[in-house]
Amino acid sequence: MEILAQLIVSGIALGMIYAVIAFGYQLTFATSSTLNFGQGEALMLGALVGLSLVGYMNYWLMIPLVLIFGAMQGVFVERVAVLPALKTKSEFGWIMTTISLAIIFKNVAENIWGRDDLTFPSPLPTSPLQFFGIRVLPMEILVVFGALAIMLAVEIFNRKSIYGKAVVATSNDRDAAGLMGINTGMVITFSYALSSMTAAFAGVLVAPLTLTGATMGVVLGLKAFAVAIIGGLNSGMGVIVGGLLLGIAETTTGYYISTGYKDVPGLFLLLLVLAIKPAGMFGKSVIKKV
Amino acid sequence: MLEIQNLHAAYGKVEVLHGISLEVPKGKVVTLIGSNGAGKTTTMRAISGMIKPASGRLSLNGIDITGMSSNKIARSGLAHSPEGRRVFATLSVTDNLLLGAFPRLTFGRPRGDVEGDLKRIFDLFPRLKERENQLAGTLSGGEQQMLAMGRALMLNPDVLLLDEPSMGLAPLLVEEVFRIIRELKSRGITMLLVEQFAAAALNVADYGYVLENGHISVHGPAEQLKNDPAVREAYLGAAH
Amino acid sequence: MSWINKISIVLAIIVAAVLPTIWPNPYYVHLMVIIGIYAILLLGLDIVVGYVGEVSLGHAALFGIGSYTAGVLHFQLAVPFLLAVPASIVVTAFFGALLALPALRVNGPYLAMVTLAFGTIIQILINEMTFLTNGPLGLSIRKPIWFGHQITGADYYYIVLAALVLTLFVVQRILKSHIGRAFEALHDSPIATDCMGVSVYGYKVYAFVLSAGIAGLAGSLFTYSEEYISPNTYNFELTILFLLAVIMGGRKTRIGPMLGAIIIVMLPNVLSDIELFRTISTGIAVFTVAYAVYAVTTRQGTVRQMLLPLLVTLVLAASGYFMENITEHRLTIFGVMILFVVYYLPNGIMGFLRRIVLKYRPQWIHRHEIVAELGDDAHVWSVPDHPVNASGYLLEAKNILMQFGGLKALNEVNLQITKGTVHGLIGPNGSGKSTMMNVLTGIYKPTAGKIEFNRKNITGASPSSIAAAGIARTFQNVQLFGEMTAIENVLVGLHHTYRHSLLDAVFHTPRCRKEKNAARLRAASLLHFVGLSDLANEEARNLPYGKQRLLEIARALALNPSLLLLDEPAAGLTAPDIKELIAMINKIREHGLTVILIEHHMDVVMSICDTVTVLDFGQKIAEGTAAEVQSDEKVIEAYLGGSVEAA
A178 and B69: CB-CB below 8 Å? Predict the structure, then answer.
């Protein structure tokens, strides 16, 4: 029983990381119905840039710089891969171009930081705290609160500021938002900046807990997508629940079956949700008008 | 105020508008009538930049707006209440109205008295005031139409385009919509109105254009069109 | 197929057959074998990517399943080559179905991600199921021994060549049959495809399973070619390579995949040789500069458009001279190539060549098969597939409620359609007429209520099964298959008359030929009926708006419906055209069809409708003969809005 509780606690921290990346998918999907297939790579770049920066400054000072870097990377992805495809209304186009940017980023990262996994120095003590016999790393607590904080910050921005409302309006109806004088192209670029920024932030949060390297993004990005689908691409609550579900499923599978299979339940759950309720557990299905 | 010369527009390879010219003078209400599929909504969309015209020239206040994106045209002072209302379903009524004033709250239009205008919109549409915190998606069809019109007015536009404001509304509500259009006219707001209820539209308008298969077939002062036998036959209901 | 084509195909096969004698070096022969194997897989992948228009990131995994099926069968059970290969095809097709059944309920980016997830799972399973696959250590297999002769690399080349020719033949035949046409149709307009009784979901799964089977064939051939397989081969990079090959070669062509295969097999070789890379990248840069200068001077492109490709190719060429080792940057180069192809060669090399030929020798390019049949009056009509056994009402909709959020688009509407009549459905814009159409044809599932058609309950049935039961429709916003010719559009409507199987199509059996000819004659006759005979071989998207609407009627009639739903057929027609339309609808009624007509032109409604139902604000406000309805106070009020007293 204690082991299970321990696994659940570790699963929660992991799940919140998935939730943040999935949240990033939602941001771009809402405004432009596009997804960045390189979301995992945005996380990876954030973590690696952060790693290089902590050599010169402390962890907390590094975070704002990584956020800025993430936003810029998102703008780059949107301008190079998404904007031209949106102009030609080619879904095939943006899927292929975001994938190709993802493999370019990965390859470039391999050539800059090498192919081996690196360790990211933890900003917090690495000795676990004990709660009722369950051990929790201080970094895991930081992950949970950091993830909640950034999602909350974006949510407050969307609800309170006029620019945030413009983002919501664009997600609702892009053409109508244009009629309000909202530059919807800028809103989409902005949503990519925000999306990659949250991913980069997730990167520096998760890096001290795992190994950091060029290949860390691929599987994280894929599993976060599973979370976005399981929770629903338009439900904020959904990604948190989906993330936790997947995180816990993963730690328990890893312990009770084999670590080799730990990625399987999430992906399997993805296939299952799509087969039963494609809009996700918390998503609303949209009726297409003819 | 708004001038359209020889406007052509197409969806894909199929041309829908074959050279439309019309004019909306300051302070006047002009209506565009015609059967379904004649190209009324396409004309409206081409004016407000929702689709790019294939050729022709559009000018607003003497400024050339041809080929501009819709957000720039809105910031130049043209508000468009689109067909099908298109309110922002997951935002509250107040937020919808505030977004109508987006260029005034950010940049592009003088700010003026946004809060006062919001209050005046609520005076004009008391139903909206009652529901100011409700999500727009949960409003009834008639209330959504009021919201769409109110949202367009929040721009303080130089020209207001109203596309089928009576669509899908119960008769009582249709009357209410026309009452409001008359009220706006009395306040001197320049309007271009597209309507399926041609008789009602010609009653409120100063001038009318009849659109047929992408061409303007007849145009003239509203009074004159109302008595034109061909127009009566085709659009005012043959039975009457 | 013209004799020029036949001769060039035979020539190509002969050239391919003598290649190993020109380059007997085993290394080259092996490269050619790999090209052949990849070409097989890509021909299959093109069915999904090119024809159905979905991105599959799971084909490397399917390839791996094929490989491992053959490998495991050989390694664990010593199954002979000639049994292992078909078994691989079947097993991979099965896995394709396993993936497609849930995954194809979604499309676009979802599907891409799901196939990626599938690929990841398969790779993990191959790695972890050591008892079967020997895990990361991989499996060793020998090429087969036939009649005491050990098959050599050169012999194997001919086996792969035979498999390639066979695959080409089969794929070509399938794609040119009604099945291929269904694939193209569902890509063009899924809704219209469903409403023609062709299940979009079913055919997508079909395409995916076919494609998977072909991947299985390629995989098993790969196993015997390499004689050693390990899980790492079937990774994400291979998937990306496959996609690059398909789009770079050119989608929806047979030559494209082969070109693509040559490119992706040769590419790593080019990239491992820095000198060769420098030569080629410099060559490309020179070509691009020359093309840019040509394009700008002939005003085909602006300087701004040319700037980015120029920059990219120049940087690529320059980088060749800075880099010591190019293999490290292989993936970056693949990525840049994909970007380049997506933006500047969206139709691939074949599309590019085709465009050039089209400019100078347009008569050489036949995008569509020309159908020369001329229709006649005798072949327009046919009996419905399902006989009408209802008497009285053919269709009865009871208490239909359709709610969108807070909006009741239809509020407790009852509709009874008497057999053999033309039933008008009128009302102001937004009154719920089109919603009613969509409910009746299964596009919307009603929130509440019941629909009975021909004594069968069809509430909640799928659009394709409702269409198959005998309800055909046209669309208010024209939903034609734009890239197909007019006659091909009608042939999609005749899909249900093709009863022959995939094998019949592959072997062109007499049954297949008979059905094909009958369908063509029927399609031509239907076009003749709506007056479009002279436009039969014109692409639908190039027809004028009014003609498009008529084509939709012909396509709907092809379904042999007992009930025809016409959604504003007169919109966009001129006055004389409207007269013809009225005559046409009268003829349709004379042939025993029941018609529901939504129309705004009152003269049309009044002259042909037996019964008229008036909807307003989602509710039925009147019903009766045309004359009754026209003098109904409520109707007048609804139609003239608030203007009655004001006017």
Answer: yes
